[in-house]
Amino acid sequence: MKGASEILRREIRNQRFYRLGFNHLHLLISGCYSRGEIQEDDTRFEMLLRILQRNYYEEVRLSDAISRTMKFETRLPSSSYDRTNGMSVNNNDVIWARNLLANRVFMCPVVFFEPYC
Question: Is residue 11 situated within a structural domain?
């Protein structure tokens, strides 16, 4: 495992590894595809399928309602991304669009919960 720990140290040194030192809450829905990701045939195909299915609108409605309740009940502060691999959605500081494999391969509305307590 020496190789894995060296990779982790390198990632932290390069600031590509993102970790918060405090409790926080955020919800993730599909979106925020980078230029490089769109150039990949399978990613582009899955992205187009999701656009045509119009899952995004249902994900926004669900995540908006869920986020308000979770923020009230948990009292956790929202988290944020650097806007290169995540994008804030619907003026809600808890909801972020990300290009995650599971968001793309499930052919239904998907909302990921990431509360850290």
Answer: no
